[in-house]
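Example (one chain per record):
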Amino acid sequence: MSTATTPFISLTPGKRILPGFALSMGISLLFISLVLLLPITGLLVQTAGMSWQEYWAVISDPRVVASYKVTLWAASIASLFNGVVGLLLAWVLVRYEFPGKRIVDALMDLPFALPTAVAGITLSALFAENGWYGSILAEAGIKVAYTPLGIIVAMSFTSLPFVVRTVQPVLEDLAPEDEEAGITIGGSDLTVFRRVVFPTLWPALMTGIALSFTRSLGEFGAVIFIAGNMPYVSEITSLMIFIRLQEFDYAAASAIASVVLLASLILLFMINIWQAHYLRRIHGR
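Predicted structure:
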């Protein structure tokens, strides 16, 4: 009597389901080159044709510097606001069950799906003095549309999902036993959140805020329709780039864009280093 044996395939850590390293790496590098490196190279080529004096004169123009300031402080306020609201939204979506939860969860991705120009027009209509929200705020003496406050509203709307979607999976993976242990030994809800939950969420929250900030730095469509675009008051850097392009001054547009690109890359690089260092320190305890 013979017995048939069933072949057994073991997937060891050395095996990979996807194609080999050479093919996977080649496709990845091709994608990065076409989508990321090629546009950046074109930007650098345009800028390389300028002398240092010309480059500095463009990026240090008083009107351009004023746009840096407006963009930076508006993006900072919007990203900090998103950090608080995004954390609360992620907490509600993960920890509670309520009617319409799936709809609210889907709405978190609406700023990604909605064209930014449509978002800007919609926000302008809502927050204008005769709009649904604007008329209520006008009674309190608050004007949003066509003011610097409108920039913050537009930036917050377009970048909020970065915080929610960054914090949400970390919160879902958080073991409830750790919180239960903290409550068992007499810790209050605030103490458990501060000592147990928040240290785990902190790297993801900071990453989400940083992504929200970098996204706000380059926001254009949603902002220009609600900002008012007054020089030295509510003019953002991406609008200055657009103005230079309309003037066919591609070198100047590339020079201003390179400043935004450099600031975004430095911020993302720093947050990645901090996150890796923080996680090593936490796991090393």
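Caption: The two ends are 59 Å apart (CA to CA).
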